[in-house]
Amino acid sequence: MPFETAKAKPALSLESSPGASAYLAIRDLIYRTSGIYHPDEGLSVLITHCMHRTAALGASSPSQYLEHLTTRPNRAAELRLLLNEITVSETYLFRYPAQLDALRNVILPQILQVKGFVGPKCLRFWYAGCSTGEEPHTLAMFLLEEKERLLSGWTWDILATDLNDNSLETAGAGIYAEHALRATSDGMRRKYFKDVGDKKLQANDLLRAQIRFDRVNLSDDSQMLFQKRVDVIFCRNVLIYFDPASKRRVVQHFYSNLLPGGFLFLGCDESLFHEDDSFRLVHFSGATAYWKPAAAQAVGGRQ
Amino acid sequence: MNGKLSQLRAQIEQLDSLETAPAILKPLLDMMRLPSDQIKLEKVIELVSHDGAIAAQCLRMANSPLFGTRYIETVRSAVMALGLERVRSILLGLCMNRLLPQSTWVIAPDAFWRHSLGCALVAQRMAQRMAQRIEYPEPEKAYLAGLLHDLGFLVNSVLYTEDFRECLRCAAEQRAPLHVIEAQLLGFTHCDSGQLLCEHWGLSQEFVDAARCHHDASPLPVAGPLANLVRLSDLLCRVRHLGYGYDEIMGIDLRGDAAWQSLVTIYPALRDMDLVRFTLDIDGAMEQIVETVDSVFGAKSIASSTTN
């Protein structure tokens, strides 16, 4: 007699959930248009977001909400609202230690080895869509900490760009409340921040001097062509708002902005839908990135 | 190297502790090769009831909070509550767990089971995903191959206890792949000893190949799909904190990996498979896989089962 395999958690069972097919269609729509993917185990999160939007619209069922996303005249606006709901998350400094670990152990050693033979010993990093600057400040501290070790003899340039002037202003000031610094150690706080009262800390002159902030529109081809010879690009939860054709164009720009052997980091659940032909997905311990292959080079050392 | 392997083969053949594989291992392995809808419930219950420690473990798990509040006191209800997947994991795991006395385990048993069962579940998922595109009817085999691929650890633990301990220490310290350090310090790897043990136990060639080839970075078309699947699953587990108890320094390019290239050579229809989506799926499933592994072979349950 055959028998069923028990499930560990009676989490939201798709088969029994009303509107399952509508939610699966929404999952695929989100993946196709934004690259954000909700695996089966994470589907309940997506459903919660959809239910918020369904209630806000006064729609009566998942399939009716699907219509709002696909056939109604305001579908583009609704998709944007749903994506806002999905990606809403405040960020903080040192939020992605696995990414720094990958930089320290795999990516930078590999880039340094190639660049050590040719050209000036300078690294270029670009945060495309830097928001209020938590991530570029984290990278700057990380690089300063490696200055006497891995990066001895090297210089770097961090460009952080955004379209939103208010974000850029906040990022440039480098003032953060306690909440944004909750993963920042006391040692790092003492070394790179100063107290500006009101329970806030400001990046000191040394730290702020590491980053250039600028306004760049990723859809503006002339601005994009201008960014050259970059080693690592970070672009988190920005491309998801682009339509497929624009997204492809931005990704192609990124590809030519990068030096061969360079890397592109996206948001955690974000992907280049169906893997862009030119970039290669690379897995690191606890992180993923896209790699622009250099001729005759394999990624990632010993396996 | 060949001399070393002949020596190893002779040692394995003389090894008492590994020779006396538990009596239920063979029927169990035979049963696990069947697709799940052909497995007889009565047969499973018989195998579980055959062994007190295994029955106790099943009852303990079935009564854990993970499976609801109803009190379960028969092997039959426990097997039905746990489901085939967990029961066979318990059976196989405890079987192999008992091949060695606790004192000779060099690698932490829970790390070993996390990795082995993690690989089994990832390989099974990968096979299921592939089966949507190609004729690949054997996700059960993929599961088993994943579970058994690192049996060489057991051999190395018994025959070269101190040297293998040193390999693990060095590998963890350098965050390097274990097989690289084994090759340096032992002159052979757990792939070699795993292959020999699989042969000694009379496992079929596919399982022997999966044990032998899962760290080969050169193309493996001759080794067949299972070895390639297991290599990819092993890599995915190791970059998602399901390695040998430490995080290695590694970056893997699945599409560029020899094992994926071999699979595409064997099954050209896989060329268009959305590998990114698959790995995002696996990332999403990892938490559940870790939970399953811990519920089956958590450090606590291993410690208590060996005292039974």
Set out the fold topology.
The complex is a heterodimer of chains A (303) and B (308).
Chain A: H1 20-34, H2 43-57, H3 62-70, H4 75-87, H5 97-117, E1 122-128, H6 134-145, E2 155-162, H7 165-173, E3 175-177, H8 186-192, E4 193-195, E5 200-203, H9 205-208, E6 211-215, H10 221-226, E7 230-234, H11 244-257, E8 258-265, E9 280-284, E10 287-291
Helix pairs in contact in A: 1-3, 2-4, 3-4
Chain B: H1 2-13, H2 16-19, H3 25-32, H4 41-49, H5 52-62, H6 75-97, H7 109-131, H8 139-148, H9 152-159, H10 161-174, H11 178-185, H12 190-200, H13 205-213, H14 224-238, E1 251-252, H15 258-266, H16 275-297, H17 299-306
Give a written overview of the molecule.
- The complex is a heterodimer of chains A (303) and B (308).
- Chain A is α/β, with parallel strands linked by helices and 303 residues long.
- Chain A has two domains: 20-87, Chemotaxis Receptor Methyltransferase Cher, domain 1, CATH 1.10.155; 97-291, 3-Layer(aba) Sandwich (Rossmann fold).
- Chain A is built from eleven helices and ten strands.
- In chain A, strands 6-2-1-7-8-10-9 form a seven-stranded mixed beta sheet. In chain A, strands 3-5-4 form a three-stranded antiparallel beta sheet.
- Chain A is globular, with a radius of gyration of 21 Å.
- Chain B has 308 residues and is mostly helical.
- Chain B has two domains: 20-99, no CATH class; 103-308, Hypothetical protein af1432 (Orthogonal Bundle).
- Chain B contains 17 helices and one strand.
- The longest helix of chain B has 23 residues, at 75-97.
- Mean pLDDT of chain B is 80; it is low at 299-308.
- The interface between A and B is large, with 42 and 54 residues.
- Strand 9 of chain A pairs antiparallel with strand 1 of chain B.
